[in-house]
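Render Flagellar associated protein in 3D.
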Amino acid sequence: MAPSTSRTTDMRPLPKTVANERNKQQLNLIANNIGGTAEQLKRQLAQVETELKADAKGKKEFEDYHTKLLIERADIEERIKKNKDWIANFERNSDNGAFEEQYKRLVGEISTIYEGAKEFHQHGWG
């Protein structure tokens, strides 16, 4: 037969804890340290959460500014395209002299107006 594994025969009474004044002080000190550490961690967590909120706000501001810059970039690119188209049109028309003829005509008209004004002032003041 196998040996008996009854718990009643193998159970020994637990040793009594010695709760003297020194042990109580050590336990109180440890408990206070744990409590202090927990409070410090709570404060640090609150600080991190505050920083995260500030970072989220800063991120939103950055994203808004980035969006604004993207819109400005698109506007500038559109202006560049229009200017390039205008230059291409100008160069096409300048080959046949259309702009040069218009320029000469305008200079002639301005000269006529200027000469008329000179003559008017000579007779008016003279």
